[in-house]
Amino acid sequence: MASAGYGKRSVAGQPGPSAHDFALLPGREAAIAGFIDGLPDGADISVKALAKVMEYGQCALRTALNFLERAGHLLRRREFLVGAGGGQWVTRTWFSRTAREDDAWGVPVDAGEPTTGTATVTAPPQAPAPVPLAVPGRRPTRSRGYLLLASVGRRCPALSLSAADCAALEPLAAEWFVRGAGEEDVLRALTDGLPSPVHHAAGLVRSRLTAKLPPEPVDMPVAPGPVAAVAECGTCRAPARPAALVDGECGACRGAPAPVRHPAALPPNRVRARAAEVRKAATRA
After folding, report:
1. Distance of CA 282 to CAs 269, 272, 275, 285, Å?
2. At 54, which helix (H) or strand (E)?
3. Which residues contact 236 (CB under 8 A, 6 or more apart)?
4. How far, in Å, CA of 149 to CA of 157, rounded?
5. In sequence order, which residues have a C-beta less than 8 Å from that of residue 49 and are 6 or more positions away?
6. Helix/strand/coil for 129
């Protein structure tokens, strides 16, 4: 646990945890996000603290935390606090299971609590203090469509898109979700049967998102039709006409004699042809 007033702070009003919370994140970042999500509030989630309990090194953890911050799951704010012993820079951290825009965290500028003790402290700056990150210049939180487009390159490197491409194509991807498609449906439509080589990834993705867009869901009224009555014997399960069943059993199971089947009568033309054959044979004899 971190010092009082520091460490992880969960954002209020989040939905309950589910298996799909971090499904669109890369594997390493998803594992780290899931681990942090399970920690209690006040836990130390600095790079050094996480490196002691996870299999990743400090460089990998630092990269992953930066990614989670850009993706909108992590908010880190540096503050310069002045006390009796001088000033120091401290870091306060908020974590959200749901990706958020910078202005959707609900964290006021003076959310920091009075500091006493150590905390997560960085070395005092040698240059004039930079502007605190309370005025964030980071990414906006990404939508479902943006995150999907950003992940296409991991499945198919030839379709790696820039941040500008993802932002421009985001409305087209969002329309797929409106029409009931899932992430796997969109990824499959974008990556199946690619030409080789791909000369313009963004243009190809735009073309496929437009050309393969599924139709809008339509509630088609179903006209009532005749209902076929299908019956079967309760003993041998053979299909039968309802009128042929007695007490739910067919004639064979009841021991009834099989009906005599008479051959069908020949049509007139066949009768005349057969008679002509007989007369011709009689004449030769």
Report:
1. 20, 15, 11, 5
2. none
3. 250, 252, 253
4. 12
5. 2
6. coil
Q: What is the CA radius of gyration of the chain?
A: 37
Q: In one letter, which amino acid is 5?
A: G
Q: What is the pTM of this model?
A: 0.39
Which of 66, 65, 37, 71 has the alpha carbon at shortest distance from 51?
A: 65
Q: How far apart are alpha carbons 53 and 71 in whole angstroms? A: 23
Residue 252: which of 269, 229, 236 has the closest Cα? 236
Whether the bond between 125 and the residue before it is cis, its omega within 30 degrees of 0, is no
| 285 residues of the chain, pLDDT tens digit each | 877 767 888 887 777 888 788 888 888 998 999 899 888 888 988 889 999 999 888 998 999 998 998 888 888 887 767 666 666 777 788 898 888 877 777 765 444 444 333 334 343 344 443 434 433 445 556 788 888 898 888 888 888 888 889 989 988 998 998 888 888 899 989 998 888 888 888 888 999 999 999 888 776 665 555 555 557 777 777 777 777 777 677 878 877 776 666 777 778 898 899 888 888 888 876
Domain positions in the chain are: 8-122, 144-211
Q: Do the Cβ atoms of 111 and 75 come closer than 8 Å?
A: no
**CA 156 centroid distance within chain:** 18
Mode of pairing for the β-strands spanning 86-95 and 74-83:
antiparallel
DSSP 12: T
What's domain 8-122's architecture?
Answer: Orthogonal Bundle (1.10)
The whole-angstrom separation of Cα 105 and Cα 76 is: 11
Contact 171, 213 (CB under 8 A): no
Exposed (0-12), middle (13-18) or buried (19+): which is 283, by Cβ within 10 Å?
Answer: exposed
3-state secondary structure of 242: helix
